[in-house]
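User: I've been trying to design a sequence by hand for this structure and keep getting stuck. Would you show me what you'd pick, starting by listing the structure so we're on the same page?

Assistant: Good idea, let's start from the same input. This is the structure you sent:
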């Protein structure tokens, strides 16, 4: 089994459209990345009617503290809006997160945020989470030839400038890992490492998602 420190995402900032209902899919994704989401002192979740300068200063201060249990601290902030002053106050913290801090900002209208803040975050989608739908059947995937696997991946890869559906991708990777174990695949080490690598970087801004998933398709053994 891969060490826990190897499957944590690096410090980064994410933006999710919606309200408090998006906290559950964010926690679901963190859990599937190997992070304990229950009673974890390193996960800080708060909901605000309006996120202002005082809230930004408090968050910035909390983000400098070291993690207690995990390798990083994770901040999930839900707010209907963020003032211009608050956004400007967070810019440096988002660009150079200290102590490996990761941020998830959930806002109803991301398009109202400053371009300077938007340039520092990875916009995430959890569109398929609520449907609990298995987009790619993991058992069929590991029985398929590599060319067909790559074709199947198109179902979860974003098209053009679409936002990547992190929930759907992580759910697929997790079900694929379980399917490998269930089918007792031999020589699965490289395939499992490719799954862990894709799951680790799927939410990171600038990650080459297509290449990561194609590595999974090529390295997971056929059973």
């Amino acid at each position: 089994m891969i060490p826990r420190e190897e499957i944590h995402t690096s410090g980064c900032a994410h933006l999710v459209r919606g309200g408090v209902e998006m906290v559950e899919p964010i926690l679901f994704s963190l859990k599937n990345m190997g992070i304990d989401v229950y009673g974890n002192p390193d996960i800080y979740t708060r909901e605000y009617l309006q996120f202002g300068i005082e809230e930004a200063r408090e968050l910035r201060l909390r983000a400098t503290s070291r993690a207690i249990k995990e390798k990083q601290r994770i901040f999930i902030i839900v707010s209907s809006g963020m003032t211009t002053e608050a956004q400007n106050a967070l810019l440096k913290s988002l660009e150079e997160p200290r102590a490996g801090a990761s941020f998830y900002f959930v806002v109803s209208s991301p398009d109202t945020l400053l371009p300077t803040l938007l340039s520092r975050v990875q916009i995430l989608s959890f569109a398929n989470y609520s449907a609990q739908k298995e987009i790619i059947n993991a058992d069929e995937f590991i029985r398929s030839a590599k060319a067909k696997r790559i074709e199947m991946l198109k179902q979860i890869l974003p098209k053009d400038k679409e936002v990547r559906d992190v929930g759907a991708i992580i759910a697929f990777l997790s079900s694929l890992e379980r399917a490998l174990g269930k089918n007792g695949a031999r020589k699965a080490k490289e395939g499992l490492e490719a799954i862990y690598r894709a799951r680790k970087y799927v939410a990171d801004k600038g990650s080459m998602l297509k290449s990561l998933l194609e590595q999974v398709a090529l390295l997971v053994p056929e059973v």
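That's my pick for every position. To get oriented when you compare it with your attempt: The chain has two domains: 4-124, 138-219. The chain is about 40% helix and 10% strand.
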